[in-house]
Design brief:
It contains 8 helices and 11 strands. About 25% of the residues lie in helices and about 30% in strands. The chain has 2 domains: about 10-115, Elongation Factor Tu (Ef-tu), domain 3; about 125-275, Nucleotide-binding domain of ferredoxin-NADP reductase (FNR) module (Rossmann fold). It has a 6-stranded antiparallel beta sheet. The longest helix has 20 residues, at about 1-20.
Length: about 280
Amino acid sequence: MTFCFYFRKEIMKTSLKSVAKSNLDPSDETVEVISITHWTDSLFSFQLKRPKSFRFKSGEFVLIGLRDTTETLILRAYSIASPSWDDALLFYSISVKDGPLTSILSKINPGDRVILKRKPTGTLVLDALRRGKRLFLFATGTGIAPFASIIRDPMIYENFDHIILTHTCRMKRDLAFGELVLELRKKDILLRDLDIKKLKYFPTLTREKFVNTGRITSLISSGQFFRDAGIGDFSYATDKAMVCGSMEFNKEMASILKGKGMKEGSISSPGDFVLERAFVG
Ligand SMILES: Cc1cc2nc3c(=O)[nH]c(=O)nc-3n(C[C@H](O)[C@H](O)[C@H](O)COP(=O)(O)OP(=O)(O)OC[C@H]3O[C@@H](n4cnc5c(N)ncnc54)[C@H](O)[C@@H]3O)c2cc1C
């Protein structure tokens, strides 16, 4: 058992070190891990040193990766969970058993290096939305990551009168990362003169008793979401929304929002709501 653990640790060390040695595209960079936090057996977050020239918009994702023990480069999309003004890059990750990337990534330590591709992109950005009064942010699972970035961006408090963040998870412990980010906002100097209380947080759980239980899509359809949150139904004239979850969740949310007369937007053609998948599969 001890040997097995030691052996796996050595493989890990080798694969992490090998990243720095391998020939990378000149536009890529290996960056240092500053910290890693394990929230549950299958959820962790980590901070990377932000290269000085690395720019992104709050809500975008980027490719990050490692080389495995066979030197194969494994890259995956990751939403940046820190705001665009921050010195560090924060990520929030699932740990998939036998997942090519996360089975290695979940074992990184401060001082290790990971690959950061240099072209952040994505549709969960304010530029893809028309102006409005209420901004809804709908997340399931690790889909909270882009919103962790957006809710620390002064722009949303300047541009909207009300912000409603919903996060649907299975268990209470899965909400911890999102709750921490909500707390972090209170110390953000850039948000100091803004009314961050205009953000209403609506967590809901599907596998444990809680103040709100059930899938947010069901709670919206039944009207319970609006009653429990103390807000009015969607209005295409004033509401804008961002959605980040599984393919199935995004589809359901798109259908609900379209049913209210809202139009999907993109950066080239801003609209009333935008979608991003939290993962493929
Ligand atoms: C635009 C975009 C942004 C993403 N941002 C994040 C992020 O911020 N955090 C994050 O953890 N992942 C994110 N992902 C998913 C990520 O790219 C990887 O799939 C994930 O890290 C697992 O990698 P893997 O190589 O270990 O397993 P993979 O082979 O990539 O995945 C194995 C299986 O695990 C499941 N899975 C993968 N990711 C998730 C997830 N996040 N939640 C639930 N089930 C999942 C899927 O069923 C998938 O088929 C994002 C994906 C996309 C497309």
